[in-house]
Amino acid sequence: MDPQTLFCPNSACPASGQVGKGNIRVHSLKERRCKCTVCGKTFAASKGTVFYRLRSAQELVVMVVTLLAYGCPPQAIVAAFRLDERTVLSWQARSGKHCQGVHEHLVERQRDLGQVQADEIRAKTQRGILWLAMALQVQTRLWLGGVLSTARDMQLMIALLQKVRHAALCRPLLFCIDGCAAYVRAIRQAFREPIHDRQPGRPHLRPWDGIHIAQVVKHSTQQQVVAITRHIVQGTQAGIDALLRQTQGGGLINTAYIERLNATFRSRLTALIRRGRALARQSTTLHEAMYLVGTVYNFCTYHKSLRVELYLPHNRHRWLRRTPAIAARITDHLWTVHELLLFRVPPPPWTPPRRRGRPSNATKALVARWCS
Ligand SMILES: [Zn+2]
Fold first, then answer.
1. Ligand 1 center from residue 3 Cα (angstroms)
2. How far, in Å, is the centroid of ligand 1 from the Cα of 8?
3. Which helix (H) or strand (E) holds 26?
4. CA distances from 342 to 244, 336, 345 (A)
């Protein structure tokens, strides 16, 4: 237990979320509790991790969650480790929620996305069909998140595109999508900015510059693809070619990368297997399982096509393997699942409480010490 690596989780504390500032002390080694010297509150060292208030051994939880993240059926884990099925499912739910927090904190940050591909998967639950829409940054193979809905409609697309927007910088951006018409409207709706011109009423919304949209429509007869048509819905051929060269070395407009990612998710989430018998009970189960699989894919799995060749002296070379998170410069190393489950998402930065009149000297000192 190293207090220098922990932060105060109390959102009302000026030092909340700040690491290595010397305000955390060990309160009780036996109970594994720490104390913040700024707000005086004590907290469990495991607060903010998957292991908070869990009595089971961490090694066992990590092993079970790793197996779940790679698609091992919960019944196999129940049989192998002699655990209750409800325990296994609760660990899956807990780690899925934790991974969603990690994803929102680290992945949904603005970056130059280049090319984004989006697609949907049909999933089965006991209450009927669910659609899972997901997006991927092609250059880094980074999974940008997914959303679930009972219908393959505008709401689903808008929810997904809002996620992509949170992760996008206002730079040239190419969307490669399937023939679903709702995508085009959803992209146009998500990627626009209000212009505040001090006029009364709702501000005008201006679309982002440099948004290119290309559709890949597959025509099939008897479940066999017989023809593919590609067309540009928005943007210029020259702009699209430049973005394709930048992200995949040229080539045609395609949705191959997101389809490959769909295959990974299908193999790791039993409810997504085609013609399988496994049904998710509720959409929340699938939502949590999706975040677990997606975050382990982003942070804990090397991607073969992301490796780069390093040239060493004497004509030797070495392959540097990378995860999508390394390629996107979110981290510099492969995370273990244990590391992922131990990651603490810091609370939002502290802001001094609003009071009438001039701030007191004590408040000014706190702001100067912790908000700089
Ligand atoms: Zn504190």
1. 13
2. 5
3. strand 24-28
4. 37, 10, 10
Position 340 scores a pLDDT of 96
Q: Give 60 Cα–ligand 1 centroid separation in angstroms.
A: 31
Q: What pLDDT was estimated at residue 277?
A: 61
The amino acid that residue 358 corresponds to is R
Structure tokens at 124: 């089965």
Instruction: Please give the full DSSP string across 169-238, using - where no structure is assigned.
Output: -SS-EEEEE-S-HHHHHHHHHHSEEEE--S-SSSPEEEEPTTEEEEEEEEEEETTEEEEEEEEEEES-HH
State the amino acid at position 234 in one-letter form: Q
Cα 342 to middle of ligand 1, angstroms: 20
Q: Where are the beta strands (DSSP E) in 73-203?
A: 115-125, 128-137, 142-149, 173-177, 192-195
Q: Compute mean pLDDT per 10 residues along the chain, 372 residues long, and list them.
A: 88 89 91 92 93 93 96 92 94 95 94 92 81 93 93 91 92 90 89 85 87 90 85 89 80 89 90 64 83 96 91 89 95 96 91 82 83 76
Cα 9 to ligand 1 centroid, rounded to whole Å: 7
Of 234, 230, 255, 294, the residue nearest 119 (C-alpha) = 255
Region of 275 on the Ramachandran plot (φ > 0 left; ψ -120 to 50 alpha; else beta): left
CB-side exposure of 208: number of CA atoms within 13 Å?
18
Ligand 1 center from residue 17 Cα (angstroms): 9
- What confidence score (pLDDT) does residue 280 get? 65
Q: State the distance from the centre of ligand 1 to the C-alpha of 356, rounded, in angstroms.
A: 24
Tokens at 329, concatenated: 């410069």
State how far the Cα of 36 lies from the Cα of 50, in Å rounded to an integer.
21
Instruction: Give me ligand 1 centre to Cα 99, in Å.
Output: 25
Q: What is the pLDDT of residue 176?
A: 92
Which residue, 160, 176, 161, is CA-closest to 212? Answer: 176
